[in-house]
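Margin note from the TA: students keep mixing up input and output lines. Inputs are the sequences; the output is the structure of the whole complex. Example:
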Amino acid sequence: MKYETISITQSVGSLTITFNRLEKQNSINAIFLTELNEVLDQAEQDATCRLVILEGQQGVFCTGMDFTEIARQESEKDREATESFSPSHYMETLKRLTLIPKIIISKVDGRVVAGGVGLVAASDIVMATPRSQFSLSEALWGLLPCSVIPYLIRRVGYQPAYQMTLTTLPISAQEAYRIHLVDELTETLDDSIRRLKPRLLRLEESTIGQMKQYFRKMWLITDAIEEQAISEFSELLSQPKVRDNIRNFVEYGQFPWESQKQ
Amino acid sequence: MKYETISITQSVGSLTITFNRLEKQNSINAIFLTELNEVLDQAEQDATCRLVILEGQQGVFCTGMDFTEIARQESEKDREATESFSPSHYMETLKRLTLIPKIIISKVDGRVVAGGVGLVAASDIVMATPRSQFSLSEALWGLLPCSVIPYLIRRVGYQPAYQMTLTTLPISAQEAYRIHLVDELTETLDDSIRRLKPRLLRLEESTIGQMKQYFRKMWLITDAIEEQAISEFSELLSQPKVRDNIRNFVEYGQFPWESQKQ
Amino acid sequence: MKYETISITQSVGSLTITFNRLEKQNSINAIFLTELNEVLDQAEQDATCRLVILEGQQGVFCTGMDFTEIARQESEKDREATESFSPSHYMETLKRLTLIPKIIISKVDGRVVAGGVGLVAASDIVMATPRSQFSLSEALWGLLPCSVIPYLIRRVGYQPAYQMTLTTLPISAQEAYRIHLVDELTETLDDSIRRLKPRLLRLEESTIGQMKQYFRKMWLITDAIEEQAISEFSELLSQPKVRDNIRNFVEYGQFPWESQKQ
């Protein structure tokens, strides 16, 4: 099977998904979400697969929602078209990562921005190289990382999640490790996975699934909270001010705070 | 405008509130809460103001509820008088700090005790010098930091908040940074704020407000929990044993555990 | 009073419970839970007692549920017999540790496994030597640490609790300190307790009780969550696959992943 935005590598017990939209900074568009979910389907059908590994390329893990696609959506009708980035499809994908009976490992070497932080936060295990960095830039555009926040709070606690959202500044891999956004900081990602893999392969698929279901019940995130995240993000994204901010950036390379000065 | 317990400094985009009750160790009384809220009103009316900075003086940030005022309240009627320290006014002030569409920065250089820790916990950003220290001494008096606890748990997690309450021991600025009570540890508070300010000024006031509203929905604190905090604290404060403890300290400088030994 | 699985030492203001089932790696069986609760009864009746200290022996703190006892339970009827390990009795004991108006200190020097981690997580204060280590091995057997998880999440946050459950790997005392499973890392446990004790003895018994009640209200754990933990664990424990795993280990020393290979 051939994909447009990702590529796949299989080995014993694991499947690696390499994000492959470098020309768009590995940002998330509708096709990316569809293809990612197709590969998760494939992993679910393979009883021997225990691990699903997510990785970027050339210093870019994932930079969140594709702004160029958003800028092209002129009307409400465009936004509802199935080929557009959909906040609910993104949120469902995060939820699926946290419930699928496979161990999701984010293997980070480089930049993780906005919605990319959500993929990392929803992963079971996060490994990162020291050069990696993580940022939530949404507020600069008048947006909020609505869908990322519940999973980020779950992973790092309230205050570190709030700080990242408020300051919009990137945090280093070391800081990400300190707050538990990264579980292992390593120069050698493949070696770290190789060492952990035999241990993880001892778990039954059913045990992994039960564990993920059980932990969900032990925390704050409910279907209602996820729906709230979707509707709040959609609401923010439909504001004329926010759409102008995004369009001015995509078309003229102008940041919101620059236009304010004029 | 002239205040009795605080003083105000304005600069572009920010307003600094300096606690000015050094003769009472910058403790919190009814006037302090009223004046603090008046300045927050003023900040809300100024659309150019993004940051509200809280600071102490001469090695004292804030030492919590003013015991001398509590000791003077002989009757239930005294306690209900509007000029007394009111647990509900304190709790409402903490809540307001977490919802007002301004970025609240606590700039700590010195001692933070009891209700002072609540002001810090409810701040959006906390910067502190290495000589700062933080303690919850309430339990020594037969009290509990009821209003502080929900916001402290939100900021530092359950166990560190519980430890501070139980041991009543001060923690160092380094430890406060480790548990996320302090977001930045710095010798040069003003430089740190100067570096962060341009980034924070890029946020719209409406975005700050929406962010604070949204994060509240993503956590455990509800109006019901705040009401419970107020009623539980008022209940504890009305116990004869606790009132004796406070009166003996204010009048004779005697600590509860000293009188127990007699 | 003479106990079979523990021994008791009393001193001014405190009572030490030493786990004394070294021939079974200080694992938890029905008698252990009964005796532990009897000593907690005794502590409750002693108004001068403020601290209850839990400790292991010879490098073993506690290794969780006794597998040999489980392996002997052939039928549903056996499992309901009062002399067997009962998931609900274990959960009630954890809850009791978190609500009893005494300060529970776990003094750890060595291995803590599975249900032993629950005793630690439910303690008010945890002190450990650098050679201590902590692991949740349940998932290797097709089980989950259902009763441990809510108290572990409360103490260390969601992600560290999830990591320990998923990887099943032991974490070092240093890592346990980093995530707040251990409150003080020390080579000299007795000195650390001696230093802290006078401060803790200043608290009234009623204040300790009110504090523990109040903190329970400020967090996610409810009676419903505890009942869910009991029923989910009992369900997992009754699965034929899990019982085979345990029996093969007790009778032939064979691990589940070894039998899978055959």
